[in-house]
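Possible race condition, two jobs.
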Amino acid sequence: MQIRVLGCSGSIAAGCRTTAFLLDDDVLIDAGTGVGDLTLDELAGIQDILLTHSHLDHVLGVPLLADSVMRRRTGRPPIRVHGLPATLDALRQHLFNGQIWPDFTRLPSAERPILTLHPFDTGEVLNLGARRVEVLPAQHTVPAVGFAVLASQGAWVFTGDTGPNEALWQRLAQMPVAHLVIETAFRNDEHRLAALSRHLHPSALGQELARLQDGSTVWITHIKPGELDTVMSEITALAPRHSVQALSAGQRLTLT
């Protein structure tokens, strides 16, 4: 299995794309602006989209992808969009409502739509072909999750957007973690804003990583444009015992 980083920024600017990962060539994990770097053929090959939560920087690519590939997928099964019930309800009410965007769960016809919506629960394991993806708990301002792509040599874990998260560490204590992709959206001097918006800042990240088992590589995601050097220097100052690096768009991680 391979994970391709399409976007990992906390917002947009030149060279900065919001959260999206491609698992192999047919599963999207979140659908931020990074989805736009896929070719039309690659977009048409997507079979499943897994959403951590309903915020725009993580779901923007879903309606645009549907519009782009509808004609190329004529006669093929719909693209399955997976999320918490609250996430899927938000898509129905606020995105696919005919005002913000057409309802592609009923287009090109109600009988053969380009998208179908599939709810999951925290703790559920999704079987996507031969791949298994566990839904992990997250703590955010809207109902949210993370994901663990399970592999024999250790999981690739993505926290999604989250503040301090005791339930996550209880689960990860039972799971070999090869790669941890964890957000750090704010600098330390913005700790009040981080707490209000349920994101992490470097000091809070350090407390979270103290719970992580040895042998895991840590990748930092969701840093705001222009803040990379400051956030990473504050993380480095924590002297974490793990290998900690900033994630970047275009990276590919192989899971075995």
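Job #2 (started ~2 s after job #1):
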Amino acid sequence: MDTLISKCKSVKKPLVVAGCVPQGSKDLKELEGVSIVGVQQIDRVVEVVEETLKGHEVRLLNRKTLPALDLPKVRKNKFVEILPINVGCLGACTYCKTKHARGHLGSYTVDSLVGRVKSVVDDGVKEIWLSSEDSGAYGRDIGVNLPILLNAIVTALPSNGSTMLRIGMTNPPYILEHLKEIAHILRHPCVYSFLHVPVQSGSDAILTAMNREYTVGEFRR
């Protein structure tokens, strides 16, 4: 980040920085003199860019409700929709900037996510990637869970398998409560048999120091 900012400043490029670092560490020396957009203000990025191009420095870091799911976007791959199911998480890892920036778990409703799925399928999307800091924790703040969401989504997908679903990153603590249901969903013909579970450490002592809230044995399971 620092390298890119320095390069842009050296050639007098207008610059907007977004993401977890500016949200969580807005007073960093490297961020002086540039516009920054917080993680919950991404729907105002056009406004920030326009003001920055006029020579103004803009800083939008206020927290608010979840950003809308139907924001205009240009997909890098027109056949892939990356769909956030929640923001934030329930963890308290000792080293994490993401939690510091994004805060506590905030889940989108099942109906809003299913509605978005139907919309992007109509747009011709062939793969839907569910995105999350911890998909296993989905819905705990609104009284639902990940299997409920996944079952609702697959019923909205074309039965001919023309659009596939990929489940995003999860950590062991919460997904362990739903293993049988998740295994059943992963056998669905429209769902990739894939789980992204990041290996943080192979040492229980280190996992405890990191406050990861699971053991090596639970990860293996």
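The longest strand covers residues 80-84.
Logs attached separately.
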